[in-house]
Each structure stands twice: as structure tokens, then as C-alpha cells.
Amino acid sequence: MTSFGLLSAVFLLVLQAALVAISAFDPSPLQDFCVAVDEPDSAVFVNGKFCKDPKLVKAEDFFFRGLNIPGNTMNKQGSNVTLVNVDKLPGLNTLGISLARIDYAPYGLNPPHTHPRATEILVVIEGTLLVGFVTSNPNKLFTKVLHKGDVFVFPIGLIHFQFNVGHGPALAFAGLSSQNPGVITIANAVFGSDPPISLDVLMKAFQVDKKVIDALQMQFKA
């Protein structure tokens, strides 16, 4: 093999390894399960959780009850997310998946947010939702009105939202490709951080005066 051919082969191997690393958001498990426990007797630690002794694992470790119960939408946004992640369902540990129920009051909004560790797939159970996500620069918006039975995907890390445009309540379920997807609600993070982001930074970023920033921060103050 020529030196050029060898370099090409090495480059392809490195590229393949990088693609594999990028695609594996949650590490792949090397065992059937790793039920999460908070106070272990052993020191086996996987994906931020300790593993329960397999001999002590029960069916209840893989069970969650309550997604039939509507969430309370009596809030400013008119929406409620009931997330079933590894903290609610210990058997999810290392499995790279979680689930959410999302309830919307009439004209309720699940505000713009991101999941830093997960792609989300949403299915509408009842109602009509306007959904969308925004790409990284140059920030193209992809949006669609969804009806009962429709499915939409929000790619990992991108800002997305759902808005109930119907006259009645709406309901959706979402699957997420991480046992602990995380959520960053954009307005809360920018205007409600603790400690707050510098006024000078926000004024320059949004090209508005201090009064506007003060008013926004008051809205999201913890």
C-alpha cells in the first residue's frame, strides 16, 4: 500500500470512529439492564446512576403508573409536561430512551426549548397543534399544523415548540432518545438565570433598552 493509500485508510477509520461516537448519545449498555439506585451497597456506576444488584431487581423497577392522568395546565403557558425519565422509572438506566405526556389548555403553549441530549418524536392524541423547530444558523423555521394521529420529529439540540391552536384541550405523547434528555427553556434560561445574565450583555444581544430587559427579567424571576 502506498503512503497515500495508508493515509486514506487511516482517515476513513478515524472518520468512522468519529461518526460512531457522534451517533451514540447515550452509551450503549453492555448488560441486559442496570436499574438505577440512589444509595447503593456496591460501587457500580453507569450513566450517572448506580446499578441495583440484578438479584434484587423486580418487575416494579420497569413500571410507571399515571400517564392516563391529565397534567395541570393552570399556569401562564397553559401546558404541562409529565416526563418519565430515569429518575421516575429506574429501569430506563442505560437504555437511552424516555417518554413524556404533554397536556395543553386551549391556546396553551409548550414554549421554545431544546433537549441537549435527545431527539424527540411527538404524536398527537387529541386536538390540533402548531409545532416547529429552528435550525442552527441561518435559523430556518420548519413548522406544521398537526391533527390527531399525526407525528412530528424535533432533531436533537434544536429549539422547538408546540402551540395548541384548537378551541379545546390537546394531548400529545413524546418519545426521547435519552434516558435523561434534559430541557433548556429559552426564555427562562436567558431572562431567569441565577445569577442573572449581565444587563449589558442582554441589551446588546437583543438591541433593546434597560427597561425592556428589566421587565422581561421580572417575568422570569425565580
From TrEMBL:
**Entries under SMART domains matching the protein:** Cupin_1
One Pfam family it belongs to: Cupin_1
Instruction: Tell me the function of this protein.
Output: May play a role in plant defense. Probably has no oxalate oxidase activity even if the active site is conserved.
The protein's location, in the record's own words, is: Secreted, Extracellular space, Apoplast
Q: Give the keywords, sorted.
A: Apoplast, Disulfide bond, Glycoprotein, Manganese, Metal-binding, Secreted, Signal
Report the main location listed first in the record: secreted
Please list which residues make up the signal peptide. Answer: 1-24
Query: What SUPFAM superfamilies would the database entry show?
Result: RmlC-like cupins
> Locate the Cupin type-1 domain: which residues?
65-214
Source organism per UniProt:
Momordica charantia
Query: Which PANTHER family does the UniProt entry name for this protein?
Result: GERMIN-LIKE PROTEIN SUBFAMILY 3 MEMBER 3
| Protein name, entry field | Germin-like protein
Report residues binding oxalate.
N110, H115, E120
Q: Which residues bind Mn(2+)?
A: H113, H115, E120, H160
Q: Which family does it belong to?
A: Belongs to the germin family.
- Which cysteines pair up through disulfides? They are C34-C51
| Any one GO molecular-function label of the UniProt entry | manganese ion binding
Annotated GO CC locations: apoplast
